[in-house]
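Recall the central idea of this unit: under ordinary conditions, the amino acid sequence of a chain determines the structure it adopts. In this exercise we apply that idea directly, starting from the sequence alone.
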Amino acid sequence: MEFKDIIGNKKAKEILLKSLRNKTILHSYMFIGNEGIGKKIIAEQFAKMILCENFDIHNSRECGKCKSCIEFEGENNNPDYKYIEPDGRTLKIEQIREMQNKIIEKPIISHKKVYVINDADLMTKEAQNCLLKTLEEPPEYIVIILIVSNESKMLTTIKSRCMKLQFQKISDNEIGKYLKNNCSMENVSKNILKLCDGSIGKCIQVNEKNDEYNKVENIMKNMNNTLTAMLKQSEIMYKNKDNIMDYLEYMNVILYNFAKENVNNLKYINSIKLVEETKQRLNANANYDMTIDRLLFNMWEEINEKNNWSQI
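Accordingly, the structure predicted from this sequence is:
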């Protein structure tokens, strides 16, 4: 895949291509932005072009034929490239130390070595301080790319030693075209696009569970019916604890759209508050079934209460 085939983030791609053409590649980069907007795939493609032995300056692409390019295509086969991701919930100091032991070894195929650290903001402080030593005095042949979703979790000393590239959300129109042309996905709902917030990766994941999200949407559509009718649609909320935070976020998207479409919208705004309270209760390990009961009953009451302020 060439840079031009990667959807979105034109400015970031242009900056990276310019550094390749002008041979001004830096030792450390920080790719910052939401999950699923192309940071990882651009980092991998940038690494491939850096390591290519015959990079085509005029067409801004790797040759695809040299030993580096051929071995890059095989999973973890290129000895000059390493992809690192969290071991469990964090990136640990042991992982950074292992990387540092390999960094001191000179490139085998190319004139550079590239290390991509995914979810770098999940590094422990000990791991970040350990990495800082390498960023302060990197070997001349090293390029380190940190992929970050939450920049605030990174030490200032690390951020100051990296070239920061801000990655932007992908437009709904671009996402729609990509999903249609590459994933055979048509007519993705506006609610789903809103939930995905410019992330192709998340949109693909959500669409794979399309039936579940349709059931959540049916719950919201039945809020104006009898309590019994609404509860009959709510089984999914009780049986899918692992996905409940995603479902609650989708409820908020739908409620927000309801609020925009209705002049007397206070009942929907109040319902969003109920959803947020539910998230807090679940994060505090409140009884799951009772918490969902509370949400559904209170939301139904809020939306259907005849004496609600929104109906005065």
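The two ends are 58 Å apart (CA to CA).
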